[in-house]
Specification:
Length: about 150
């Protein structure tokens, strides 16, 4: 376990603990009732989660994507919610984070993206694949030719 500990200095062991180890130690701090370690590990882990999620701002910083921002907020909020619930009582959904952190975070991201897509499609009477694209009709030809925006 000491190999996982953040800040350990050794030439053969990396100093950065894996996120899986941080989740393990955060959960262990609940049993020890050690708030100091929890807060320290929690800060490190939440910073990693935020760094791994796409920012809502464009690369030039002039625009912001509402969809990306919503997904980022939902994923981070759900992760914090799971950690908080586990602090009070064991939450089995965090077990996946302890084994495959990146995979579990990707699952939260997919859930948030699907929820966002579903909320955008509410009230739309057509097929779901149609609502996510812009349909342009070329009226200059006698045939009704459709083209998809961005394709």
């Amino acid at each position: 376990m000491t190999r996982c500990w953040p800040g350990r200095k050794s030439s053969s062991v990396p100093t950065r603990a894996t996120s899986e180890c941080l989740v393990y130690f955060i959960r262990a701090s609940r049993r020890d009732n050690n708030e100091v370690w929890f807060e320290r590990l929690y800060r490190i882990l939440t910073e990693r989660v935020l760094r791994s999620l796409r920012k809502a701002e464009s690369s030039d910083g002039k625009k912001e994507s509402l969809t990306r921002g919503t997904i980022r907020d939902k994923v981070f909020g759900r992760f914090v919610e799971l950690l908080s619930a586990d602090r009070a009582d064991y939450v089995d959904k965090l077990d996946y984070f302890k084994v495959r952190f990146d995979g579990a975070l990707a699952s939260l991201r997919r859930d948030a993206q699907e929820n966002r897509r579903m909320s955008q499609n509410r009230g739309f009477a057509g097929p779901s694949w149609l609502s996510s694209r812009t349909l342009w009709i070329d009226r200059s030809t006698s045939d009704s030719v459709s083209s998809w925006n961005g394709l």
